[in-house]
Amino acid sequence: MASKSPLCFLCCLLFNLPPAGAISDALRAAIQASPRSIYQIGRDSGISQIVVSRFLSGERDIHLATADRLAKALGIAVATR
Questions:
Q1: Helix 64-74 and helix 38-45, axial crossing angle in degrees, nearest 10
Q2: What does pTM read for this prediction?
Q3: In the list 24, 45, 61, 77, which could disulfide-bond 69, CB 3.0-4.6 Å?
């Protein structure tokens, strides 16, 4: 995994954002902890099962809007610190 750039770190500080990867890590943990299947989470969020599965396995990243839809389907909030 590549190290985070100084610019990324600076943006996190200036805009009070979580560090890069924190949102993805939290969503992956919530998906894994959910009693629902990947299919059900995808259906509830309007995201295909394949996209959810590839995100969960680390094969692909997702857009912020997709992360927000997943978070809503999982009943969690994506928020700044």
A1: 110
A2: 0.70
A3: 45
pLDDT in tens, 28-50: 999 999 999 999 999 999 999 99
Give me the residue spans of the domains in the chain.
6-74
Lookup result for tokens 């995201």: 47
Closest C-alpha to 38, from 51, 26, 25: 51
Query: DSSP assignment of 14-63, as one string?
Result: HTTPPPTTHHHHHHHHHHHH-SS-HHHHHHHHT--HHHHHHHHHTS----
Q: Are 23 and 66 in contact (CB under 8 A)?
A: no
